[in-house]
Amino acid sequence: MKPSLRIVFQICLGVSIVFAATGFFRMIQPKHPPVITPKSIGGNYQYPRPQPWTKMNERPIGNPFSATISEPSIPEPAVESGLILLGTLKGDNPRAIVAEKTNPAVTKIVRLGETAFGEKIVAIGRGYVMVSKEGRTIRLEAKT
After folding, report:
1. How far, in Å, CA of 125 to CA of 114, rounded?
2. Is 83-141 assigned to CATH 2.30.30.830?
3. What is the pLDDT of residues 81-139, one digit of tens each?
C-alpha cells in the first residue's frame, strides 16, 4: 500500500470511529425534555399549574329519596318576529324591505336603527336582518 493511501485510510478509519463513539454515547445518555420558553412573550412565561382532579359525574343532584319534588324549570317562551324579510340592499346606507306576517301586503323599507311594526332593526347583512324584540335578538333570513 502506498504511504498516501495509508494516511487516507487511517484518517477515514479515525473519523468513522469518532462517529461510532458519538452515536453510542448519545444512545446511552438519558434524554431530558427541552426547556421551552416562548420568545413571543419575552421569556417571562409562567407555565400553568396543574388543575385539581374532578370526577366527570360529580355534581349535586339532591336527595332522590326525599318526599319533596321540585318543579322543573320552564324555559322562557321563544319570541317570534312578526316580520317577513323580502330583501336587503347593501351599501353605505343599507336598507331592508320587510313585511308584516299577519298582512304581507303591508311592506316597509327600513334603515339601520329604525323600528318597523314594533321591532327595532339592529343589523342588516346580505340576505339577513337582525331585529330586537322584547330584549331578544332575532335573525330573519330572506326567503328565496
Report:
1. 15
2. yes
3. 889 999 998 888 899 999 998 988 889 999 999 999 889 999 998 889 999 988 888 89
| Domain range list for the chain | 83-141
Tell me how far apart the alpha carbons of residues 98 and 118 are, in angstroms, rounded to a whole number: 12
Give the span between the Cα atoms of 8 and 138, in whole angstroms: 84
pLDDT reading at 35 higher than 80 = no
Residue 114: CB partners within 8 Å, gap ≥ 6?
A: 120, 121
**Secondary structure E strands in the chain:** 83-89, 95-100, 107-111, 115-116, 119-125, 128-133, 136-141
Burial 64-103 (b: 16+ CB within 10 A, else e): eeeeeeeeeeeeeeeeebbbbbeebeeeeebbbbbbbeee
Contact present, 94 and 79 (Cβ < 8 Å): no
> Has this prediction a pTM greater than 0.85?
no
